Amino acid sequence: MNPYKHLPHSHNLLKVFESVVRLSSFTRAAQELHVTQSAVSRQVKKLEEEIGINLILRKHRSIEVTQEGLALFKALQEHYSSVDSLIASWNESRKERLVIKTANSFATRVLIPNLHKLNDKYPNHEIVVIPLIEGDPELSDTDYDILIINSCNWEKYENQPGIFKLRDEYMAPVYAQRFASQDMDLASILKQPRLHPSLDHLDWKLWIKQAGVRNAPKVRNSTFMSLDLAMSACLTGQGITVTDLLLVLPELEQGFLRCATDTPIQSSAWRYYCHCPKNSQIAIEVYDWLAFHSEQQVKKLKSLADEHGWLGFSGQ
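Predicted structure:
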């Protein structure tokens, strides 16, 4: 039994009618459908005969859609649009995916601001960015095209298949310029509240030790459990945080963040690596792009260090 007994025998009649009303012309509809104008007119007439309703009033140089015709047109347009969106979603789901699993801070501060470049370079790929929660991931999982690792246990990754070093970290304390009454020196920095991205306060401890600071004054500490939260607190004037300067380079360039004039910039024990387990061409291309981007960022940081008198940074 036909559940749609009131529909015309040929659905093409509905398609032709929708085109005529949408374009307000038999001629333009014929051009869109690649048929003759007389064929369009016959199809609409046949539709009217099958359903027993006048849908279009034909005038000398124009057409007028009846109330019933307008109601039918709106129903067709709504359902055609839904079907078109559904089919488009199927096509979208068949797009190839480029899966990048990455340290969270690298995702928010490097990948996301430059995501449009990857989208332009690979228009037929859906870029999937997955934040990495654990500190030192195992390389046995291969549910990604590229894994970006930030680790101080770099011996674990050196010389492993598919591993490429991306860059070092360059650490120093930073403060929000707009909350400072004047440019700070190192002694002033050490008297400010300290902001930490981890409970062990490791970044501050290592930096103070490597800077040769003895008897650093005791100050208030606040911990946020992520670099992004610590940076947000810093930018709102809550204190000073030690961070990888390449991750905050835009804020340094724009003057939102500053280092003390005599601040030592130190190479961290942490390094960034890329793992490309499938060794695909696109993964290697993205690694090359990331490596080039890192080289350019290091050059910019070297210029800022020379300009502001930050110490100990050679850009190597």
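Summary: The chain has a mean pLDDT of 87.
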